[in-house]
Design goal:
Rossmann fold; binds molybdenum atom; alpha/beta; Dimethylsulfoxide Reductase, domain 2; Barwin-like endoglucanases; binds ligand MGD; 27 helices
């Protein structure tokens, strides 16, 4: 409910109060594993600073409670008025990461967006997995065809730009990654971690490759080049399942290990050895995540991840990258709802392409600030904190203050929502039933679970999806986002027929790969059976094969797409011009007791030493005259500010690391614990003017910075 790992929890509840939270030892997937974030879930629920009633900002700038009706009326009338006067695109919408944990909200997104009618929709995707999504769309013809490491059977795990021991794995739902990684080694396999920092995961690995930030695309393409040159590629697999290999093969010649050594900071013979090891392994999987997805060549690097898996014939094989067969077929929903696709329109300012309906967040402030037709004058935020999570956060905060109206659907008053005129709080996860729609679709096993609400709702409280539905209806839309279907639903209402997300998912389940298809004699799945299995249902290991996940009309993997070829040419130019620059660059970091920006108000997660500190290698510390434990000045093109330094040889020299999601000073009046440990926001230093070329992804890692001592 708060995390991709989806660990099973056991609650002890009395009089609607949660007495304890423990890991569920009988959970079919997590088997008793849980991390501190999971246990903290009850503290979030009980947090006195969490909003329970809608609030409205009064003339004095203070938030005061109002009734739900008054809140909905106010929001609907202000949004309608602004839309009538300035057009549909005058309303901007940003939805954030916790939406992924919430099946009701996920299913309402499309209908709500249709009711707003805006193309100015943004999300955390351009700070997260959009390169993964677009790579899948181009290669396999569906954004939701995502290869997942078969971590429990692989003999070789090559992990780039991810720290799953801390993050618990991302786009790879897998509780207890430490155990799973150890198991790879115990059965004689090898784990290699490619990361500018010697991370917690790197320390568990057989080998750590301290790459220069932004070097991953070059590294992976060079590995492919080595395999081409040594005749180690799986030609029968390429011939039977792909198109365009000849073109790619020709292009690989440019990426020799010697040529990419400068940009990657990895010696040519290491690159060649890694390539051959990968090809020699009985099974192998290359996996890349956030560190790669928010770099300068993010989409090409993600493409190169899959390319390595494809040319070695590992895709779809046991122990390789495989496709999950989820009980709830999310890909089908995406295709049915017309969501799947990219670059169908572009941002008004800077012309950046949409991905799955969302524009890149790097252009959000521009769209609010730049006058003209289509300028954003009102914002809706849903479960997002863009002020702390998108590039140049301080500019975003200032832009929000210029809006005519803003509404946030959120559980806290924080750095973003404090700018809103109205905040609508949901009853939150523990008072709703729960299905892991998204994360079970990218899990390392096929799993299905339904969880009941843990506590009863407070009086008048609404779930996220009910808030979205109420607004959708007031804006003239309906739950299904399709006028004729919604009319039909309206006619059925007197008969007691009502759309609910869980009811909808029951249909998806029953017609899904394991469903009973409403046949009374079938032993297939339906919601009742899921409800009867409180520890979840294990539907087995990932299934070999790729055919069911290819959606191009010729049912082949399309290795060639114009955007990837262009990006390769761009990378080649960078190889010669940007290799070997000596300046300092900033990258990000996650920590176990933190979850992006919003779990810092839980005392149990905040104890101990200060964590929002800049990791600096000892050589850099002496070079830039900064000292362990002391404040220093960090400066980028868009921001200059103080940070506390922690000197550590975990860092690659020339690279400094700061976690994101901090910077709570402005929230202190409403979040007492977080406000007491504010830290600084890494994204204040991130430049919103530069984006990754294919999809406009934010470049959060590899930000050029200067470091120096604070003036005495
Ligand atoms: N520099 C840097 N920046 C990054 C990253 C990085 O690695 N480095 N990572 C990026 C990534 S991967 C992500 S996903 C983004 C996250 O970016 P966002 O999604 O914008 O931000 P979060 O910090 O996840 O904030 C979630 C918000 O949702 C609220 N919330 C929590 N639960 C619920 C709920 O159930 N319902 C509702 N309505 N609200 C809820 C919280 O109070 C909070 O305001 O950050 C990105 N930013
Ligand atoms: N405890 C905790 N768990 C979380 C979260 C959290 O905030 N806290 N956030 C959740 C979210 S929203 C997500 S999306 C996932 C993300 O989960 P992961 O993808 O595992 O992300 P990170 O832990 O940020 O790891 C990214 C790694 O990339 C490295 N890196 C930076 N630049 C580069 C580069 O150019 N190349 C390479 N190869 N590496 C680079 C960083 O040093 C870092 O170790 O985690 C989720 N889980
Ligand atoms: Mo994320």
């Amino acid at each position: 409910m708060v995390c991709e790992a989806t660990c099973g929890l056991k609650f002890e509840v009395e009089d609607n109060q949660i007495l304890s939270v423990r890991p569920d030892d009988d959970d079919v997937f997590s088997q008793g594993y849980v991390c501190p974030k999971g246990i903290a879930i009850a503290d979030i629920h009980a947090d006195p600073d969490r909003l329970r009633r809608p609030v409205r900002r009064n003339a004095a700038g203070e938030f005061e409670e109002i009734s739900w009706d008054a809140a909905f009326d106010l929001v609907a009338s202000r949004l309608s008025e602004i839309r009538a006067r300035h057009g549909r695109d005058a309303i901007g919408f940003y939805w954030g990461n916790p939406t992924g944990n919430n099946h009701g909200a996920l299913l309402m997104l499309s209908a709500f967006t249709k009711a707003l009618g805006t193309r100015n929709r943004f999300s955390s995707g351009s700070q997260d997995a959009n390169p993964r999504i677009v790579t899948s769309y181009e290669l396999y013809g569906s954004s939701i065809s995502i290869p997942i490491p078969d971590i429990d059977r692989t003999d070789y795990f090559l992990c780039l730009g991810a720290n799953p021991i801390v993050s618990n794995g991302s786009v790879m739902t897998a509780p207890d990654m430490r155990r799973r990684l150890r198991a790879v080694r115990e059965r004689g396999g090898k784990v290699v971690v490619v990361d500018p920092r010697r991370t917690e995961t790197a320390k568990e690995a057989d080998e750590h490759v301290a790459i220069r930030p932004g070097g991953d695309a070059a590294l992976l393409l060079a590995m492919v080049q080595v395999l081409v040159e040594r005749g180690r590629i799986d030609r029968p697999f390429l011939e039977s399942t792909t198109s365009g290999w000849a073109e790619i093969e020709r292009r690989m010649a440019a990426f020799t290990p010697a040529r990419v050594a400068g940009m990657t900071g990895v010696a040519a013979d290491t690159i060649a050895r890694l390539a051959l090891e990968f090809a020699d392994a009985r099974s192998a999987v290359c996996y890349s995540r956030v560190g790669v997805c928010v770099g300068p060549h993010a989409t090409l690097a993600t493409f190169a991840t899959d390319l390595l898996n494809i040319v070695t014939g590992q895709l779809g094989r046991e122990g390789g990258p495989m496709f999950t067969t989820p009980a709830f077929d999310l890909g089908r929903v995406a295709r049915m709802s017309g969501l799947d696709g990219r670059d169908r329109w572009r941002s008004r300012v800077r012309g950046l392409p949409e991905t799955l309906g969302d524009l890149p967040s790097a252009v959000l402030a521009d769209e609010i600030e730049t006058p003209g037709d289509g300028q954003i004058r009102a914002m809706v935020t849903f479960a997002g904190n863009p002020v702390l999570s998108v590039p140049n956060g301080q500019r975003v905060a200032a832009a929000l203050d210029t809006l005519d109206f803003m509404v946030s659907i959120d559980i806290y008053i924080n750095e973003t929502t404090r700018h809103a005129d109205v905040i609508l709080p949901p009853c939150w996860n523990l008072a709703e039933d729960h299905i892991d729609l998204l994360f079970n679709a990218v899990a390392v096993r096929n799993i299905a679970r339904w969880s009941p609400p843990v506590v009863e709702r407070g009086e008048g409280e609404l779930a996220d999806w009910e808030i979205l539905l109420a607004l959708t209806e007031r804006l003239g839309g309906g739950a299904l986002g399709e006028p004729w279907l919604d009319r039909l639903l309206g006619w059925l209402r007197p008969l007691g027929v009502r759309w609910t997300p869980t009811g909808f998912l029951n249909l998806l389940l029953r017609f899904g790969p394991y469903g009973d298809r409403f046949l009374p004699w079938s032993d297939g799945l339906n919601l009742a059976k899921l409800k009867a299995a409180p520890h979840g249902i294990d539907l087995g290991a990932l299934r070999p094969g790729i055919a069911q996940r290819l959606f191009h009309s010729d049912r082949r993997i399309h290795l060639v797409s114009p955007c990837m070829l262009e990006a390769m040419a761009g990378l080649e130019r960078d190889l010669d011009t940007k290799a070997g620059t000596n300046g300092l660059v900033l990258i990000g970091r996650r920590e176990l007791r933190s979850n992006n920006s919003w779990m810092h108000n839980v005392p149990a997660l905040m104890s101990g030493r200060e964590r929002c500190v800049l990791y600096v290698h000892p050589e850099d510390a002496s070079r830039y005259q900064v000292r362990d434990g002391e404040m220093a000045i960090l400066e980028s093109r868009v921001h200059r500010g103080e940070v506390r330094v922690a000197v550590t040889d975990e860092m690659r020299p020339g690279v400094v690391s700061l976690p994101h999601g901090w910077g709570h000073a402005d929230s202190a009046p409403w979040q007492k614990v977080a406000g007491g440990h504010p830290g600084v926001s890494a994204n204040d230093w991130v430049d919103d003017a530069i984006v990754e070329p294919i999809i406009g992804q934010s470049i959060l890692n590899g930000v050029p910075v200067q470091l120096g001592p604070c003036a005495a």
